[in-house]
Amino acid sequence: MVSSIIAHPPLSPIDAADLSPFYERWYELMLLIRKFEDKAAQLYGQQKIRGFCHLYTGQEACIAGAVTALRQGDKYITAYRDHAHPIALGTNPDHVMAELYGKATGVSKGYGGSMHLFDKARHFLGGHGIVGGHVPLGVGVAFAEQYKQTGNLCITFMGDGAVRQGAVHEAFNLAMLYKLPIIFVIENNGYAMGTSVERSSNVTELYRLGSSYAMDAERIDGFCVESVHRAVERAAVKARKGIPSLLEFVTYRYRGHSMSDPAAYRTKEEVESYKEQDPILKLKALILNKQGIDAAALETIDRKVKDQVAQAVAFAEASSFPDPATVYHYVYKQTDYPFLQH
Ligand SMILES: Cc1ncc(C[n+]2csc(CCOP(=O)(O)OP(=O)(O)O)c2C)c(N)n1
Ligand SMILES: [Mg+2]
User: Fold this and answer.
1) What angle do CA 127, 99, 80 make, to 5 degrees?
2) Looking at ligand 1, which atom is closest to the CA of residue 188?
3) What's the confidence (pLDDT) of residue 6?
4) pLDDT digits 0-9 by tens, 144-198
5) Which of 274, 273, 265 is nearest to 195 (CA)?
């Protein structure tokens, strides 16, 4: 079971801002991610989508709150649970779904699949399958932004399991040493495959790991999109001044680790207890109660999202697989690289 959330630091002027103008946008985005993932699960069952497939259901608030707190030009990098991040950045869900199908119209031209989405135009730099392996890459991206004096930052997402990789700690150290514009985010969903945080880590409040590097660190309710937004906004102000942060979002994944995981290591009661605090339902209640928006307006959004997902599936279905003759393309930039047939 994920342990409780710590108290937030005192309110800053940023924290005091009214975030209700974001409510409908968050609702639409989080619902789109939820419905997209539910459809992906169904399609996986039909063997339309094959290979590895890790769904984000339950964790929607983590990316939704982050994108509204950052600005155009900021870079995003994450692990293999990556469908939601490009969608949140504006990648057309058609091209995300097509990639899950392995079709040539996918964001990675059908060569990447679920774990290797990439959309440079929207500053989404993957989609990486090696646990923790992309965290040093995030540091490299932040270094490039600093070197080129762009004013942009790199937000680097990772799982609770990833923080136990040595490379992550080298990355934390370098980020502090070089004063990089970076925000590290641990999406702590309580488990790394079937292993709970308690079974693999002596320190279970993972934000505390930041203190070894004198890095500012906070633990945030990852089911609350407003808390996520405010935390990322605070961290972004610091990152742009060369002060890295470590944010731990306490969240939960409703489904198994991947589509091939029956999730027998946790009880139904545990899963249900998290679903009762569902981030989308929480936000819906806020919208209905606080803003006086009626349920009919939200139903219009529900229908729009349903149509978007259906359209994404139709697009993926109608697309072609890549030409097998191009199988060695995009492996190495150097066209005459030895050992590869062309
Ligand atoms: C270096 C490495 N070791 C092991 C694996 C196998 N593996 C894939 S996902 C995973 C669990 C990672 O969990 P976490 O970081 O908490 O991310 P989550 O799946 O919960 O999003 C493991 C061990 C891998 N991909 N890479
Ligand atoms: Mg995890």
Assistant:
1) 20
2) 16
3) 52
4) 999 999 999 999 999 999 999 999 999 999 999 999 999 999 999 999 999 999 9
5) 265
Cα–Cα nearest to 137, from 108, 171, 114, 163: 171
Q: What's the pLDDT score for residue 1?
A: 43
Q: How far apart are CA 215 and CA 190, in angstroms?
A: 22
Q: Note the pLDDT tens digit of each residue in 199-217.
A: 999 999 999 999 999 999 9
Give pLDDT tens digits for 30-50: 999 999 999 999 999 999 999
Give the number of residues written for the chain: 342
Domains and CATH numbers, the chain: 20-326 (3.40.50.970)
Any atom of ligand 1 within 6 Å of the Cβ of 131: yes
Encoded tokens for 129: 């399958």
| Minimum-distance ligand 1 atom for the alpha carbon of 59 | 21
- Find, among 260, 254, 253, the residue nearest to 79 by Cα: 253
Mean pLDDT across the chain: 94
Angle at 184 between CA 121 and CA 30, to 5 degrees: 60
Two tokens at 254?
């409703």
Q: Give the environment of ion ligand 2: residues with CB less than 5 A.
A: 159-160, 189, 192
pTM tops 0.85, yes or no: yes
Ligand 1, pocket-test mutation among 55, 131, 160, 259, most atoms within 8 A of CB: 131
Give me the mean pLDDT over the 250-274 stretch: 94
> Count of CB atoms within 10 A of residue 185's CB?
26
